[in-house]
Input
Amino acid sequence: MTSDRENEAAPTPTLCEYAGDMLTRRLTRMLSHCQGVRDGLSNEPVHQMRVWSRRTRAALELFHSCVDGNALFTIEREIKRVADALGEARDLDVMIETMHKVSFALPELQRPGVLAMIDNLVRDRAECQTAVDRAVARVQRCELGAVLEKIVPAPQPPVPLEVRLAGSIS
Output
């Protein structure tokens, strides 16, 4: 005796369903780092949110063929804004980290110059955080997940085995 679950198979998703699911998962992952970025306690949330913003933008490209481009305009614009702000912050984070490593390898007499450069980078990074905070706050206010929910097609329910078999017989 077979159960109803065994008689149903998950339908193969269409390209648009797949792209919508991928876009939703990537956007959700990107947005999961908002609070960590705003807290500013670590550089890792900035790095992760930037990575996931790039992946989300790639998924948006795939999803473009499924919907009217205007429907995605708000999502694209906000992700680009936050990605740009995160990119600048991440670049400064990497420079600061690299310069710290370099400073330890230098002779004692050369370190003050490098440490002065690091101080300037740290100041630039602190100023950059304001733009990052604004961009992240804006992304949160836009509720991109809710916007995307209205656009992404709902997944199709499984097709019962009898229906699939009936279709293949006729």
About this structure: The chain has eight helices and two strands. The longest helix spans residues 73-105.
